[in-house]
Sequence to fold (497 residues):
Amino acid sequence: MTAIGDRVDMIRGVRVAGPGREHLIDDGPVDLVISDGRIADIAPTGALPARGAVLDGEGTWAVPGLWDNHVHTVQWALAAERVALGDVASAAEAAARMGDAAPLPDGRRVGSGFRDALWGDRPSLDLLDASTGAVPTYLINADVHSVWLNSAALVREGFRAIDGVLREEGAFEISRRLNAVDPAHGDRAVRAAGERAAARGVTGLVDFDMAWNADAWPRRIAQGFAAHRVEFAVYPFDLDRAIASGLCTGDLHENEDAPDAGRGLIRVGPLKIITDGSLGTRTAACSHSYPGDPHNFGMLTVPSDELVDLLLRATGAGLGVAVHAIGDRATTSALDAFTVTGASGSIEHAQLVRHADLARFGRLGVTASVQPQHALDDRDIVGRHWAGQTAIGYPLASLRDAGAALRFGSDAPVAPLDPWQAISAAVTRTDDDRDAWHPEERLSIDEALAASVRTQLRPGEPADVVLCGADPRADESALHDMPVVATLLAGRVTHSR
Fold:
């Protein structure tokens, strides 16, 4: 029996189901020998004598540790404390639910996850004030690109909005303020969320919190955080500080006195640049206007020349880039900037891509960092608001065929931080009783797994291992709720059922 934190020297009796299986002679059970946090050997079960601490795999299926390549960590962690609004069907229902909610200890009511793009009514200041009164109340859109506030909240924050809705930079500023809780509070929430992620097989994530994460993560490690690896991003408002601090993408970032369990877990990630809005807020920069609003083509929040300058500065300083681009105009602008600058990195989301731009991902070596669950969450919104667009919506197979490297994420808290949900969405393109949505964009299970990991199960690789209670390659219907029996990070147990 193993416990959280135990070091394992051998995993006995597992079948390799993910990347690395192609190097084995057959599909028979094997033993994984672990040394210094890495896989030292793989042999048929029983061929090698047991050594050290042995974890009996009991016939489970092993895949490499899973990554979520797009997470807003503190906002995701704090969502557990906020009023869930993902199921509300109208502005009136959302306002009523917030009116019934208990305030947080700081005196504010905060809800998150509403999707107003299909509501029959619209958010308004009068409606929210009538339900919530004098208690400052905030409702965060699922896409985080808009926030609905009552009058008390607007006064408290020093903003004005006729309908109570702040969009884009105003919404981001409100989210930054709501997420700026006491560090001890935030760190506890992040630690608990990390444990939940490990229970779904997560061994790494890319943190896109809009904060100075270079101080936060070493602090969390010093306090005992050891659930998964982290690559943390910086934003343009902190670019000068990042350059002055010598941050370079890929570098280890830890204190000399970091606990052993936390060593080697934190690395510098990319510069994150948000260049357009979102579909849910109807601000993603598109070639065709939004229905009923002929002058609304979304917005490019970073002009092309400014984007080129940011990429040049980041590249010169040793920082990769992660460019948020949802609409097709934004994706084209981002690819143009990669072409001009020679920068390396990713386009985040790529939810609407022109046919002519597909091949540019592969030619430029730009990673398509996508969130497969968004396609399913947005399929009805697409039918209403993007029906007239001529670019490809939520491409996966099209990007693959064009030679693009794919990486999966959740955009948590926009979608649940669960790589198995993302894998299922990519493979099945449905999560209800409807037929697959655009089945031509489906990926195989092997392709979806490859987009969800950073390593393989083979000698020399990190011993980041997930033991699954079912064969991921046998039944695509079981992917969404895949049972995770154990998760190991560098040979250390982070989850055990």
Summary: The longest strand covers residues 266-274. The CA atoms of residues 286 and 329 lie 5 Å apart.
